[in-house]
Design goal:
By secondary structure, the protein is mainly α. The chain has one domain: Rhopdopsin 7-helix transmembrane proteins (Up-down Bundle). Helix content is 78%, strand content 5%. The protein is built from nine helices and three strands, in the order H-H-H-H-H-H-E-E-H-H-E-H. A three-stranded antiparallel β-sheet has the order 1-2-3. Helix 5 packs parallel to helix 7 and helix 8 packs antiparallel against helix 9. The radius of gyration is 22 Å and the shape is globular. Keywords: Membrane, Transmembrane, Transmembrane helix.
Length: 276
């Protein structure tokens, strides 16, 4: 039988300490949420793939949906290895990797902004046909908002919280970065929501004059996108507000909340687009 080296003993001890800092209920909940999120993402992606008849004719919004699902699934996969394989409390570097993954996930899952911008363009384009790069509103929505979002995101990478206490990994973001992020998230989603409400208002005005399949479909798309925008806004702001209020939270809690947020957003995106 091989003898344990001091280094091996230290690793085992660190894992024992780490496991002791996380309650059993938390460990079970983390496993359940991770498995459910991965299953949901895989199922939704499969459903979308099966509906594709010709990949060459897929519209941009469909590719954005696939990108959101893929990015979300990769986050769940990588964080599961980090959480259940390596252990967030194994070292300060691993703990720091946890918050960086959370930040990268949050930043990249904001592909949903591009998704909403694209949906707003599709809805408005039905009444005023204009090419994407010829539409000043589309260019402003895409590049203007994303430019500001990049700046706000950089603040969160700079002012992140990473600390270890008795083997427990605590991660989060400082308020100096969280407040601009929450404010920006709220303002952008309110603005995009207004873009969806305006076509709905116009459609209601003309529904007695011209009621056809095209208008009905447009009304459905606008209504679903509006509801989806509101739902994802509430989910995102609640998650960020809790994170800010706690001024850092155990790594396993942060990752579990991220998984829940990801699963919810994926379901909303699928629901919004499943009739497209």
């Amino acid at each position: 039988m091989a003898l344990s080296t001091p280094a091996t003993a230290d690793v085992l001890l660190s894992r024992v300490v780490q496991d002791a800092t996380e309650p059993l209920a938390g460990s079970i909940s983390s496993v359940i949420v991770t498995v459910l999120t991965a299953t949901i993402l895989s199922t939704l992606t499969t459903q979308r793939v099966l509906r594709v008849t010709d990949w060459r004719t897929l519209p941009p919004v469909a590719w954005i949906v696939f990108a959101i699902f893929l990015d979300s699934w990769l986050f769940v996969f990588v964080t599961a290895i980090l959480k259940f394989g390596v252990g967030l409390g194994a070292s300060f570097g691993i703990c720091q990797g946890g918050i960086l993954l959370c930040l990268v996930c949050y930043v990249t899952t904001k592909l949903i902004y591009i998704f909403l911008v694209e949906k707003a363009y599709i809805i408005r384009q039905s009444s005023v046909p204009t090419g994407r790069l010829k539409s000043k509103l589309y260019i402003f929505n895409l590049f203007g908002m994303l430019g500001i979002y990049v700046v706000v995101s950089i603040l969160n990478f700079i002012f992140r919280i990473t600390r270890q206490h008795n083997g427990e990994c605590v991660i989060g973001m400082q308020r100096v970065a969280m407040i601009p992020l929450i404010s920006f998230d709220l303002l952008v989603n309110v603005y995009l929501t207004i873009l969806f409400l305006m076509p709905l208002k116009n459609l209601r005005k003309v529904r007695h004059i011209q009621r056809n399949a095209a208008n009905e479909r447009l009304r459905t798309v606008a209504s679903r996108t509006f509801i989806g925008a509101v739902a994802t806004t509430i989910s995102s702001i609640v998650n960020l507000s809790v994170l800010m209020a706690l001024d850092g939270e155990p790594g396993w809690v942060c990752l579990m909340c991220c998984n829940v947020d990801i699963a919810f957003s994926a379901i909303v995106v699928f629901w919004v687009t499943h009739k497209d």
